[in-house]
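A note from the maintainers: we've had questions about how concatenated examples are separated. There is no special marker in the raw files; a new sequence line simply starts the next protein. For clarity in this README we add a label.
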Amino acid sequence: MTVSAGPGDVALACMIEMADELHHLGVTEVCVSPGSRSTPLTLALARHGGLRLHVHLDERSAAYYALGLARGRGAPVAVVATSGTAVANWLPAVVEAAMARLPLLLLSADRPPELRGTGANQTIDQVGIFGRFVRWSVDAGVPEPGPAAARRWRSLAARAVARALGPPPGPVHVNLPFREPVVPTGESVEVGRPGRRRRPPRSDLAAAPDSTVVEALAGWVDASPRGLIVAGGDAGGGEAIPWLAVVAGWPLLAEPTSGLRTGPPALAAGPLLLGATDAEQLLPPDLVIQFGATPTSRSVLALGPRAGRLVVVTPPGAEADPARAASLRVQCDPAALAIAVAGRITPRGPTAWAEQWSEADRWALAKLSTWFDSLGDELFEGRVARDLAACLPDGSTLFAGSSMPIRDLDSFMLPRSGLRVVGNRGASGIDGSVSTALGLAAADSSPTTTPSTRTFALLGDLTLLHDAGALLWSARHPHDLVIVVINNGGGGIFDLLDQSRLPEHEALFATPHGVDFGALAAAAGAGHGRVGRAAELVPAVAGAAAAGGVQLVEVVTDRRRNAELHRAVAAVLDGAGG
């Protein structure tokens, strides 16, 4: 090391090794928020040349953007922030990443140990700040020169990526203290040779099912002619789970986020059928096998406890039995278990049980179609969800906001292929939804390809306002995203809940906002269109996609009328079991 090299030079040299190892291990996307203490790390990442940096003023938005990138890319994404409350702003996205099993690399800059607990500016206790919501956490120590430094920092990067990939995948936190001055002078620093390059770590997501479990479950299926399969979010597996339903002779209830609501054996109106007044005639099943995340709708969630036996199958590290009603809980690759069980049962072929459900499903779909037609051109949020999902081009991604959008899609989306539906359903919060959708849009684009709008979002008005800062910062950057925002003047879900009967309902729960979304879009540099009639939705979405960039399609509905129409659906389906 030269005499004039300072702490910033040492830190930069070590971070260069770390950044290069991250890239070698498959990290290509980095979300950075500006700050002084993180200078050595930020410079190393920016100067690498193989990493794409996304700069965000707001650390919370940056972390949710990274979450969208991680889901879209299927690979770990790094997030960088300076010390202090900047790091604390990551927590909501860290919780979502932990529960949704998405790999994030949280690289936080920090003050050196000698300044902790002294009242030094912008210094908080960052070590272990995320508790059990991270798969691994380490306080890396201050960078030091020497012949073993390169190997040390590359090893740390490799360990962080491996822990993020799991199983189970999720966020990891690497806390990086730097001494001042953090700005390098340009002097060279000896950090040694990196040594032998490692192979990129692989995540063992395809955890094989236990043979004893397979045999037991196959026996239960053989003994249960009246069964149902539920595919929740992230059930995955391509055709494996539908194939099990076909072989067993059972209907399939597939949520949009499962990717399996593509046609028979998946029902088109399953959640609505289960919520109908006369649905008891179709129940109870002898056995329910639930794959993936906890069901969204209350009617499907209530199905398991009412069944003769419930089996819950989730990937390693995930739970999906809030009622604690499962006779058996299995953590393995859901697709592998479905294939194994299907190969060990006696095929039933078409059954009277499955035909009873199919007939009820066709009847319900026809009744709903007639009812929708009777509304004329009146906007109903359930129809908005149905028509939006149906009109998007093949290869699109639709991000569904929590609260009502995901529920409306679950109730009304018609079976189709070619559309990926995702949402922040790990913790089911509304925060960070705009940022996540923007991250998904970035994952669908590349600096070397022609921009095209393949990413769409369906959000409520409060959800969009909760993350309006992301819109203001990112809309002028190169993103292609169409956001369909339901503007019903507040929190529409509360008009369907018991809180609607309280005298404080409007002030404390519905929270009407009065925001002009056209003015918000103009301030952000985004496009804006307004839909006031049902027939205007599809042309407005198509026009927004053709325009490119970030576009808001504002759909104006009446919150109280929408609640009335939601309640009317159950009456429309009376007699579904007959």
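[label: protein 2]
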Amino acid sequence: MNGSAEVIFINGLIYTVDSAFSETSAVAAGNGKILCAGSDDEVKKYLGSGTKVIDLKGRTVLPGIIESHMHMQAYGLKLLNIDCFGKTRAEILNEVKAAYKNIRQGQWITGTGWNETGWDDKQLPVKQELDEIAPNVPIYISRVCGHLAWVNSAALAAAGIDGSTPDPAGGEIHRDAAGNATGILVDTAASLVQDRIPAIEETTLEKAYKLAQDDFLKHGITSIHDLALSSFYDYGTVEFIAGMYRKGAMKISIYSYISADNAEAAYSAGAFTGAFGGKFSMKGVKVFTDGSLGARSAWMLEDYSDRPGHRGNCRYSDKELYELMAAARKNGFQIATHAIGDAANRQVLSVYERILRDFPEPADHRSRTEHAQIIKRDDVTRLLSLGVIPSMQFVHCTSDKEMTEERIGAGRLGDAFPWRSFIDGGAIIPGGADAPVELVNPFHGIYAAVTRKDRSGGPEGGWRPEQKLTRIEAIKAFTIWGAYASFEEGVKGSIEAGKAADFTIIDRDIMNCPEDEIKDISVIATILGGETAYDADGCFS
């Protein structure tokens, strides 16, 4: 005799994303778990007197979307501060001017998301533009990549940066012909100013997290991998998130990575998984090894094609990187390394070889390399042999394809965003958006993976189309492969009995609609633990 379900969903097109990538029509859930996935008749066996029945009316259902690389705190703060994404220089300056009129004593003006490659002149901004409209208030606005900041003179003064300040290791202070700081700071140089920004008030932080969560649910996201930002995310943030779960304010699942620079408290407390009913885990450590292509701080084996004599910024010596990664391994934490340039990826893999030899247990390490955007083919082979997971953000490729060609030149494009090479070699690719770097919509990522096109539909046939993913692979990247990357494939990522009753209900058949429509898919409802967490048209509440 089957136990009664709390809710059953019938008459749908359900892609289970199990090992066979099955199709079925119904699913039953109770106590937050899937009781049965099968035909309408099979699932109706779980019908009881108190069971709620929801007719899907033929709609398509996927497992709850797992966003495998993003920054929740930064995303929420983006929604509260100046959002420069897709805006012109003039539009951004107008927003700064408006913020300046309402600024309180001691506050900073902050924002994120500008991208000079979309401006008419494609020139980096300078501090004087900000000084003219907000001369007495420090301003810190990060580029869309998060690896370069535009600041004003007041912010430079707050950090004590002047013409005599040396470039810190792993960073760069842009200077004019006279040697003065221009207001553009790269990576660790930006941190000199970022570290001076006043602490965020808890009420503001809570509002930011709630706004971010609402946006995730609107896009069908039920779980995230929160990859730390070193200046804003420390163990105090972990405790803050735990407090939100205790208050019932946090509903999505978070698998969290602490920055290697702020890991001591995490090591003392110890890794944990599945807190708050399986919702919250802190088991990862994030290590930055270089910057970004956009900031020309990704560490390259050869010069940048559009900046001869420059190869980006290396954050750590091999010895320093080994020590950071060894500390994580010895303390039982999964390692995730940010590596974009081919030199950074080579260094990371060399250190992984030593780490996994010196600390062989646990053998199932699932170490990750985040981004792996430019990587030599022999290093792809090394990554595969080590069992390292390439965590990639498909929209980075399609957003940055022209800029990538400018940065590394046509002769090195064979090393750029090699998704097919990874998968054909036996790897999986957990997918994400790196929000707030990109828009959080996962269907943009699935579309980019399948087509290698940007959202305007170009180029025809896709950019380096030989590296495309299939639709099944792209969906797995945002579901079961994301679950595997966080050791959670036994509890989520597919619609199978015993797993979390997390579903994403969408407005069209993702497997059979024209591929150019994938980017336009809308989420109708998001189900968390069998309960409706987002309902676009009120049909599921």
